[in-house]
Amino acid sequence: xxxxxxxxxxxxxxxxxxxxxxxxINKLKETKxxxxxxxxxxxxxxxxxxxxxxNQVIMIDTKLGCIELLRQxxxxxxxxxxxxxxxxxQARTLDIDILICDDQEICIKNLxxxxxxxxxxxxxxxxxxxxxxxxxxxxxNKNITEIIKECNDKSKVQLYK
Length: 161
Known about the structure:
CATH superfamily: 7,8-Dihydro-6-hydroxymethylpterin-pyrophosphokinase HPPK
Low-confidence stretches: none
Distance between the termini: 32 Å
Radius of gyration: 15 Å
Shape: globular
Oligomer: single chain
């Protein structure tokens, strides 16, 4: 199954945390990282009073189901210091979101695929378009390039050096 994951960090050694996350995901059972986008530095989304994020999107091939993949991603987040709070949009060492799982549409308590905010977040759309600008999001009739043109998010997204 081809899956796109979004990685983000805004506290600690952000770039190293993203690199460690990619390595950890690549070590998951029956999972291989196929491609990684560049790393982007981005303004916080949802809570503007946070430090800048580093964001990246990776494409993986996995035989894990989406729910098991979510569990494994949460374990990786915790391994690198993620503390889950009841509040949304807080500082975090590592955030891993499942964006797309093949052509599946999933809506259960702890998992929605495609990610429900995917089309509203330039920090996800830009690196995703780097990997596959012609990708059509399940349930949509538009590719990533078209979605970017229509996105209202004006947050700053720039390549990280």
